[in-house]
Design brief:
Structural class: alpha+beta
Strand order of the largest sheet: 1-2-8-5-3
Order of helices and strands: HEEHEHHHEHHHHHHHHEEEEHHEEEE
Helix content: 40-55%
Shape: globular
Largest sheet: 5 strands, mixed
Distance between the termini: 46 Å
C-alpha cells in the first residue's frame, strides 16, 4: 500500500507504467486521463484480468461485469437505485439503523470498529433487500460470509501474475464464503418466485424484472445481480464508515462542529429522514471522508485495443490501474490534500475538475448505490453521535491496510461513551 501511494506521489498525475515483477500496469490518476478511460473511451477498458477474475465466482455476470450482461443488469437495476426509490426505503432504513444501534452498542465497552460498523451496516442492507423473506439466522450467516469473500483474495490483488491453479492463502475461505452466500440467497429467490415477486423488497423486484427467464438460468441472473449489488452496497458503506471514528479523534475541531450540529438538529430523538436536510455539516463530513478514504481505492481495467492516453501509448491487453485514492490526493487539484477539511464541500464550493473527485466511480459504470450510501451514512453517524462520543484506542495516525477495499489497520478498537446532557 505504501509503495502504491509513493508511486502515485512521484507520478503527480502523469501516466506512468509500474514495474511489479512480471506485471507492468499503467497507473492513471490525472482527472483528464480518468475521464478518458472511464467515460470517453470506456468501451475499450473492461472489467477483466487483475482484481476482477479472482472475484468472478462472487460477482458473477451481473452489474459488476461488462458487455451485454452488464448492460442488461444496468437496465434492470437502475430503477431500484433512483433517488425516488431510495427515498421510499429511507424511513425504514432509519428505523432499522436505530434498532441495530440500540441492540449492538454496549456503552463503555471497547469493541472492534470494523466489526461494530459491519454489525449495523450489513443487517440494514440485508433487511432492506430481502424484506421479511430472510431470518435472523440467515443474516448471521450472510454477513460474515460477505466479509470473508471481499477480503480473502487481497493477496492476489498484488500478485495477479500467480496462476489460479497455484493455491494461495484465502482461496479456501473464499470458496466456503461463496457456498454460504449461495445457500442463503438461492432459497430466498425461489421463495420470491413462488409468490410471483409480490412485495416491494429488492429480491421481489428483481424476480419481477426477470420473470421472462425461467429455471436455473433466471435464478443465476437474479443471484448475480443481488450478490454484486449487496456486496457493493455493504462493503462501500461499512468500509467508509469505519474511517469516520479515527478521523473524528484526529480532528477535534471537525468533531466539535459535527457534535454541535447533531445535538442541535437531532437532540434526544431517533434520527429520521426529516433531520437529514439540516445535517449540512454531516453531509460535508461524509463527502470529505470519501475523498481521503474512498472504499474502492483501486479500479483496474483491461485495454482491449491500443490507445493513447495523455500522450502515452497504452498497449492492447495491458492493465490500467485507476485509483480515486490517489486522484483525490493530487496537490495540483486539491489544496492541502492530506488534511481532512469538510469545508471543501460547503454549499457553493466548486471543484477544479469534474473528475478530480470520483469516490463512486465515473462514466457508464458509476455506482448505482451512491444515493443509498449518502442516505445511510448520515443516518448511522448521527444515530450514534446523538447518544455517544467515540474514543478510538490507537496511538498515532490510522493507516490503510491491503484489501480489495480501503480498510483501516486490523483490530482497530474504540469505546462509545454516553453523552452527558445537562
Amino acid at each position: 500500500m505504501n509503495a502504491f501511494e509513493e508511486a502515485g506521489t512521484q507520478a503527480n498525475g502523469d501516466l506512468v507504467r509500474l514495474h511489479m515483477g512480471p506485471f507492468r500496469p499503467y497507473l492513471v490518476t490525472h482527472p483528464d486521463h480518468v475521464q478518458h478511460v472511464l467515460a470517453r473511451n470506456q468501451p475499450n477498458y473492461v472489467r477483466e484480468g487483475m482484481f476482477w477474475d479472482p472475484l468472478a465466482p462472487l460477482l458473477g455476470e451481473g452489474i459488476l461485469s461488462d458487455g451485454d450482461s452488464w448492460a442488461e443488469s444496468r437496465r434492470i437495476l437502475q430503477p431500484l437505485f433512483t433517488a425516488k426509490y431510495v427515498n421510499s426505503l429511507a424511513e425504514r432504513m432509519a428505523e432499522i439503523i436505530t434498532e441495530l444501534i440500540d441492540e449492538t452498542v454496549v456503552p463503555g465497552r471497547p469493541f472492534d470498529v470494523a466489526k461494530g460498523v459491519s454489525a449495523i451496516v450489513h443487517p440494514t442492507i440485508v433487511r432492506l433487500f430481502f424484506g421479511a423473506k430472510i431470518s435472523v439466522a440467515d443474516i448471521n450467516r450472510l454477513v460474515p460470509a460477505y466479509d470473508v469473500a471481499v477480503t480473502a483474495k487481497a493477496i492476489r490483488l498484488v500478485m495477479p501474475f500467480v496462476p489460479d491453479q497455484f493455491p494461495m492463502p484465502g482461496d479456501q475461505p473464499f470458496k466456503k464464503a461463496i457456498k454460504a452466500i449461495d445457500e442463503v440467497v438461492y432459497p430466498r429467490i425461489r421463495q420470491a418466485r413462488m409468490t410471483d415477486g409480490e412485495g416491494d423488497d429488492v429480491v421481489s423486484r428483481l424476480v419481477k424484472a426477470r420473470e421472462d427467464i425461467a429455471g436455473a438460468e433466471g435464478e443465476r441472473r437474479i443471484r448475480d445481480d443481488l450478490v454484486a449489488m449487496h456486496g457493493a452496497s455493504t462493503e462501500t458503506s461499512a468500509t467508509a464508515l469505519t474511517w469516520a471514528w479515527p478521523v473524528l479523534q484526529a480532528y477535534p475541531q471537525v468533531a466539535a462542529k459535527l457534535y454541535e450540529e447533531v445535538e442541535r438538529v437531532v437532540g434526544d430523538d431517533p434520527v429520521t429522514t426529516s433531520h437529514l436536510p439540516d445535517l449540512v455539516y454531516l453531509r460535508m463530513f461524509v463527502q470529505e471522508l470519501l475523498r481521503l478514504y474512498p472504499p474502492g481505492w483501486i479500479l483496474p481495467r483491461k485495454a482491449l485495443q491500443k490507445d493513447v492516453v495523455g500522450g502515452v501509448t497504452v498497449e492492447a491487453g495491458s492493465t490500467v490501474m485507476l485509483s480515486p485514492y490517489l486522484t483525490h490526493r493530487l496537490p495540483r487539484f486539491w489544496d492541502r490534500p492530506l488534511e481532512f477539511d469538510p469545508e471543501r464541500f460547503a454549499p457553493g464550493e466548486e471543484r477544479s475538475h469534474r473528475y478530480a473527485y470520483w469516490p463512486f466511480g465515473a462514466g457508464p459504470h458509476v455506482c448505482l448505490g451512491q444515493h443509498l450510501f449518502m442516505m445511510e451514512a448520515p443516518l448511522l453517524i448521527a444515530g450514534i453521535l446523538r447518544k455517544y462520543r467515540p474514543v478510538v484506542h490507537h496511538d498515532g495516525p490510522v493507516t490503510p491496510r491491503l484489501a480489495s477495499s480501503l480498510r483501516p489497520v486490523a483490530g482497530l478498537s474504540m469505546t462509545l461513551v454516553p453523552v452527558e446532557r445537562r
